[in-house]
Amino acid sequence: MLEDLTTAVPSSTSWPAAYPQGYAVVDVETTGLARDDRIISAAVYRLDARGEAEDHWYTMVNPERDPGPVWIHGLTSEALEGAPLFQDIAEEFATRLEGRVLVAHNAVFDWQMIAREYARVKREAPVRQRLCTIALSKELGLPLPNHKLESLAAHYGVVQRRAHHALDDARVLAEAFRPSLRAAAAGGVRLPLLECRPLTEWSDRPVAPRIGQQAGSGGYRAGGWRPSRKRPACPYPNPGRYEAGRRLKQGMRVAFSGDTSVERELLEDRATDAGLHVASSLSRLTSLLVTNDPDSGTSKVVKARQFGTPIVDEAAFGQLLADVEPASAV
Question: What is the DSSP letter of 276?
Answer without folding.
Answer: -
